[in-house]
TrEMBL record:
NCBIfam families on file: PRK00129.1, PRK05480.1, udk
Stated name of the protein: Uridine kinase
Residue ranges of domain Phosphoribosyltransferase in the record: 258-461
GO terms for biological process, alphabetical: CTP salvage; UMP salvage
Keywords of this entry: ATP-binding, Cytoplasm, Kinase, Nucleotide-binding, Nucleus, Phosphoprotein, Transferase, Ubl conjugation
Pfam families: PRK (PF00485), UPRTase (PF14681)
Listed EC numbers: 2.7.1.48
Catalytic activity: cytidine + ATP = CMP + ADP + H(+); uridine + ATP = UMP + ADP + H(+)
Annotated source species: Clytia hemisphaerica
């Protein structure tokens, strides 16, 4: 059996399921950080992320949005005579468009600027949304339209001598410039532009942070304010999922494999902690095949007639569309073989969602999907589901690629009840297919009784 792969690629720093348990969309929280060159804006941004302790936070620099230079401007830049510190040096329309998309939870392409060549690279970085977006730069508050997008505005105020010393060190070591050109540019452009554009923008800040390397009090105040805002928007995501729907009956869009003695026997083998890897893989594959057969029976078929060798016609059923599979890496890849065995030449996409060890939240790191996803019945595969956070994220991504909710079938070997409820309540039109619904999860969000780390056991690996 072959797997055709006609794919587009998207990389990201993390993608949230930008829909609450009622399927309602919420906006990202945008933080604008402004300050003079080398004032410590990036350091402050990282401190906020560190103390905030929430997933799906991205930092975007205004430096990415420098305008593409004309040949004449490029020559000026080579002579350190082009004013990179003027407000006109930035593509404000593109910056606003990008932040609006991120605020709406959509993916956005971030330009990559090469300071050593004073040019924008052909490749771009794709950010697929975030709970919190931090946008930092020397002119962050210079554009009125950009200002309107921020939920909080922070100005980092640092002594000019400290900023100059930092800029010298940075531009020489990181941007390949010599001390003469750096000082020339500072005297001619950086200092006067700071006085003309940046210092006056301090009045637009909600919080001014004096910064000479540390200011824990200011960081603490900022983090507390942001945390309060995020709590109002319901960003304690996994903890909320785990407590929802206690005592409710299983949803109507859940389809379980018939609990035959054979199925229970296969479950007993693969759940046994003492099962060797060969047995685990062999009997897991057998159960996956049964699971995938069940999945195929739920897809839309239509009557058809065929001629038989006896010259009689047979009235049967035919699948009336296209199917593709999407595996949630890495455990979901284990189900690909079962899908291919029942659906010839199916296209396969990949989504890498990993749990952040510090926050226990899912984060999207990689995405590759077949083109024209809207035309497919999509089989979304993961080996096990605990709270359903990763599955919810993956479904949201498919919807963002114009897949109809009713055309998504989520398939998993073992699911905990909280995960089933989470998916079904957020996306009631998605078919959920599993070989077992386990009763609960523990404090570490592991399925009880569960199967352990399926990926490690199936692929024979251990991840630290």
């Amino acid at each position: 059996m072959s797997k055709k792969r006609e794919n587009s690629v998207c990389y990201t720093a993390g993608r949230p399921p930008w829909y609450n348990s009622h399927g309602q969309m919420t906006n990202a929280f945008l933080i604008g950080i402004c300050g003079g060159s080398a004032s410590g804006k990036t350091t402050v941004a990282k401190k906020i992320i560190e103390e905030l302790g929430v997933p799906w936070v991205v930092i975007i620099s205004l430096d990415s949005f420098y305008k593409v230079l004309t040949p004449e401007q490029h020559e000026q830049a080579e002579r350190a005579e082009y004013n990179f510190d003027h407000a006109d040096a930035f593509d404000w329309a593109l910056a606003c468009k990008t932040l609006r998309k991120l605020k709406e939870g959509k993916n956005a392409k971030i330009p990559i600027y090469d300071f050593s060549t004073h040019s924008r690279l052909e490749k771009e970085k794709t950010v697929y949304g975030a709970n919190v977006v931090i946008f930092e730069g020397i002119m962050t508050f210079a554009d009125p339209e950009l200002l309107k997008l921020f939920d909080i505005k922070v100005f980092v105020d640092t002594d000019s001598d400290i900023r100059l010393a930092r800029r010298l060190r940075r531009d020489i070591s990181e941007r390949g410039r010599d001390i003469t050109s750096v000082l020339k540019q500072y005297d001619k452009f950086v200092k006067p532009m700071f006085e003309k554009f940046i210092a006056p923008s301090m009045k637009d800040a909600d919080i001014v942070v004096p910064w000479e390397g540390t200011n824990n009090v200011a960081i603490d105040l900022i983090v507390k304010h942001i945390s309060n805002q995020l709590e109002k928007r319901g960003f304690n995501f996994r903890s909320e999922l785990i407590s929802n729907h206690v005592g409710e009956p299983l949803p109507a869009n859940l389809h379980e494999v018939e609990n035959t003695p054979q199925v229970r026997g296969l479950q007993a083998i693969i759940r046994d902690i003492n099962a060797d890897r060969d047995d685990f893989v062999f009997y897991s594959k057998r159960l996956m095949r049964i699971l995938m057969e069940k999945t195929m029976s739920l897809l839309p078929f239509e009557p058809c007639e065929v001629d038989t060798p006896s010259e009689r016609r047979y009235t049967g059923m035919r699948f009336g569309g296209d199917i593709c599979g999407v595996s949630i890496l890495r455990a979901g890849e284990a189900l690909e073989e079962a899908l291919v065995s029942v659906c010839k030449d199916v296209k396969i996409g990949k989504i890498l969602i990993q749990t952040n060890k510090n926050t226990t939240e899912p984060e999207l790191h990689y995405l590759r999907l077949p083109r024209n996803m809207s035309k497919y019945q999509v089989i979304l595969m993961d080996a096990t589901v605990a709270t359903g956070a990763a599955a919810l994220m993956a479904i949201r991504i498919l919807l963002d690629h114009d897949v109809k909710e009713e055309n998504i079938t989520f398939v998993s070997l073992i699911m905990a009840r909280p995960g089933v409820y989470t998916i079904a309540s957020a996306f009631p039109k998605v078919r959920i297919v599993t070989a077992s619904v386990d009763p609960d999860t523990n404090e570490k969000f592991h399925i009880i009784p569960g199967i352990g780390n399926f990926g490690n056991r199936f692929f024979g690996t251990e991840i630290e």
